[in-house]
Amino acid sequence: MFSRNNNTKENYSLEQKQNSCAYNYIFYHSKVSPKLQGNGLGIAKIHPSMINENYIDIDSELKGIGSCNFIEPQYKVQYNPNHIKVLDLYEKNKAQPLNTSIYYQNERPFYT
């Protein structure tokens, strides 16, 4: 029995093409972008691709994984955050200023 050599340039380029086609199928870029709830209503989870496009590179740099990258040399990662659209569910009232009390230093406090 013979086994074929999988470490050829042709097999590598074919596997890279399959990976890019699968990536384009999974992450369909023409979809509608969702909006987050506004007015302080938070969400439980948010996908990292909504915050930044190169979240994998940032995570790899923080964990020190980029030293094992044999395809491209390690480079300095730029953090470019995406603008997340917010939809306000209700209109907030403006904050009322508090009545501040005036204390004079030359007066004695009144104890009961």
Automatic annotation (TrEMBL):
Name of the molecule in the record: Uncharacterized protein
